[in-house]
Write a structure and sequence with these properties.
323 residues, alpha/beta, Arginase, Chain A, eight-stranded parallel β-sheet, 8 strands, 37% helix, manganese ion binding, Arginase, hydrolase, arginase activity, manganese
Length: 323
């Protein structure tokens, strides 16, 4: 079981275009995430990137939305801050848990994990759980929102400013003699699951097909079962040394996760995601986690008063950490 965890709060939602997710990190803490970790005998601490990152104004936006990708400068700057903090956590041998905020934040968190893996000559695998593919580039995006680009960016496709954030070493220095390609995520080291039927565009499907990225839609899992996914996960875990899990809460069914901007009427169920988390924990290779797109404005509570979305996110995290 991982016993030392850094919660990295990133109160930023300009990449999503819809306000509210910036309040997610603080809400996670106020609703007891630190206490949940403590009850599981884990040592944790909370780091607020807006308050402690040294660039507070970036989080509020310094420009108007324009161009192919709105707020591109702000997204890139926040990604750099996230990358530095995540890398420092990994360097200390702790587990970074990055709390969003919108999913563009993962450009920085997983980018840092790629850097750390490269330094150790390790291979990083990513399990991306999302109702959307997040595989647009600046040339294909329909919404012009950066939260639709992070997976493509990490794979080396997207605005140069974003791709450089994912590829550059900490503080703008390249890592040793590694070429740029080695600091991008390998398509063979990614598995995507949870896609909804009406949540993606044709360009994203074409991107996945071109790069041969395995993905398991919610419909596939419902009709064909989970055995194919678990076989792919076992294969991935056998081929990589480190594992990052990136969860967009809109992949979960709205009955258990109403606290998102895009509620999902056919999302993943509680038992399914907790079983998935336990399986990933058993690999012993977890190095970091994203919990993204939590919007407490839409949160609801159960009969016992527990916040539904924050609660299932906490339970998922604890399972991932082996509690």
């Amino acid at each position: 079981m991982h016993s030392q965890v850094d919660l990295i709060g990133v109160p930023f939602d300009l990449g999503g275009g819809c306000s509210g997710a910036r309040d997610g990190p603080r809400a996670f803490v106020d609703l007891g995430l630190l206490q949940d970790l403590a009850h599981a005998s884990m040592i944790s601490r909370y780091y607020d990137l807006r308050e402690q990152g040294g660039m507070r104004e970036i989080f509020n936006g310094t420009s108007t939305p324009s161009g192919r990708v709105h707020f591109q400068y702000e997204v890139a700057q926040v990604a750099k801050l996230v990358s530095v903090r995540t890398f420092d956590t990994l360097r200390l041998g702790r587990i970074p848990v990055v709390l969003g905020g919108d999913h563009s934040i993962s450009i920085g968190s997983i980018g840092a994990a790629l850097h750390a893996a490269a330094l150790l000559e390790k291979r990083l695998g990513v399990v991306w759980i999302d109702a959307h593919l997040d595989a647009h580039t600046h040339l294909t995006t329909h919404s012009h929102r950066a939260h639709g680009l992070p997976l493509a960016t990490l794979l080396g496709h997207g605005p140069e400013e974003f791709v450089e954030c994912a590829r550059m070493g900490i503080n703008g220095k390249r890592i040793g003699s590694y070429c740029e390609a080695s600091l991008s995520l390998s398509p063979s080291h990614v598995i995507h699951l949870g896609r909804g039927e009406d949540h993606c565009e044709s360009e994203e499907y074409a991107f996945f097909e071109k790069l041969c990225i395995p993905e398991f839609s919610r419909k596939h899992l419902h009709e064909e079962g989970w055995s194919g996914l678990y076989a792919s996960l076992r294969d991935l875990c056998a081929r990589v040394d480190l594992l990052w899990v990136s969860l967009d809460l809109d992949s979960l069914d709205h009955s258990i996760a109403p606290g998102v901007y895009y509620p999902n009427p056919n999302g993943l169920l509680r038992e399914e995601v907790l079983s998935l988390a336990s399986t990933l924990a058993a690999s012993g290779k977890l190095c970091g986690v994203d919990l993204m797109e939590y919007n407490p404005q839409f949160e609801k509570r159960n009969d016992d008063g527990r916040a539904l979305t924050a609660g299932v996110a906490s339970d998922f995290l604890l399972c991932l950490l082996g509690a």
